[in-house]
Amino acid sequence: MTQPGPRTGGPLTDEGLVQLLTPTGERVSHPEYDAYAADLDADRLRAMYRDMVLTRRFDTEATSLQRQGELALYAQCLGQEAAQTGSGHALAPQDHVFPSYREHGVAQARGLEMTDVLRLFRGIDHGGWDPADHNFHLFTLVIGSHALHATGYAMGVQRDGLVGTGDPDRDTAVVAYFGDGATAQGDVSEALVFASVNQAPVVLFCQNNQWAISEPTTKQSRVPIADRAPGFGVPSVRVDGNDVVATYAVTRQALERARSGGGPTFVEAFTYRMGAHTTSDDPTRYRSREEEEHWRRRDPIERLRLHLESVGELPEVFQAELAGEADAFGAHVRDTVRAMGRPSAASMFDHVYATRHGVVDAEREWFARYEASFTDAGQTPAGGHR
């Protein structure tokens, strides 16, 4: 990849953004990244479009379920579908993903049963899937910590001889997804240090959605987020995160570099969080309607739709079938979540450690006596499940 010099703009500049689809869906050329998007024929683009549409439907259903009291909380990825779907489709089956907590589009691209994602937000468990099934690790709620987990895993992959062998079915890369706010955490800086000095096969993928809850990117950095990485010796690239084709191409290059032994890459996907940070957040308190409308006109799904229509590759029959699939998917999400039931409060002690632990056992026994004290008095403890 070509490493640019320092950029003159601030963190919201569009300088240096790789773009292959304009907001109106026009395919534009790029001297470096056209080659990495050359394999995206109409079938693959429609597959990306499908995943983006279903991810948004999942978002809509999960948000509604939270408003109805079926989920305790939910973190939307509304507006970030292209960054997630494009990068997710660039992954090889053997690659590993370390997500934060809103990578629903990547989960969809990796083939997860999407209702398992909602077990966390319903409070059923700490993550409802086996990471080994799709090489998609559990959601991480501690901001930035998983950048270190991913880098360490990549170092292990490297030591296992799964990098630079020349076998495309064996060589492995690792991706960590995090937001712009996470780059202010020490964990991400430490991950950059370890990734750089060890030439770890890791892609540090930052979805710069411009808001760390209510804190804008302009209060986190005076330069583009991607410009932080070269100081650690890690090459970086900025991509239009609402352009699914460009995101695919940039991520594919970074993954190929990692798998071949070329070391880490920092990708900044410049996008926008069109929804709230989570369902407990009210973005109208800190950003304007004008800003939101500006980014709605750059909707990533609409961009790909316009492109496919312009080249005659979005037939009505496909759209009708996808609409039916989305409706069935929505019903599946609603029915599955409502059938999950509620765990007992004592189940919080079940999976703290893999084996018995004396402190946890003592806390479990105390909690049992505490709940029993209410039952003996004919009362139900606050937050109880009786």
From TrEMBL:
GO terms, molecular function: magnesium ion binding; pyruvate dehydrogenase (acetyl-transferring) activity
Enzyme class: oxidoreductase
This enzyme's EC code(s): 1.2.4.1
Domain Dehydrogenase E1 component: 50-314
Biological process per Gene Ontology, one example term: branched-chain amino acid catabolic process
Record's keyword terms, sorted: Oxidoreductase, Pyruvate, Thiamine pyrophosphate
The organism's place on the tree of life at top rank: Bacteria
Cofactor: thiamine diphosphate
NCBIfam families: PDH_E1_alph_x
PANTHER family membership: 2-OXOISOVALERATE DEHYDROGENASE SUBUNIT ALPHA, MITOCHONDRIAL
Protein's name in the database: Pyruvate dehydrogenase E1 component alpha subunit
Organismal lineage: Bacteria, Bacillati, Actinomycetota, Actinomycetes, Micrococcales
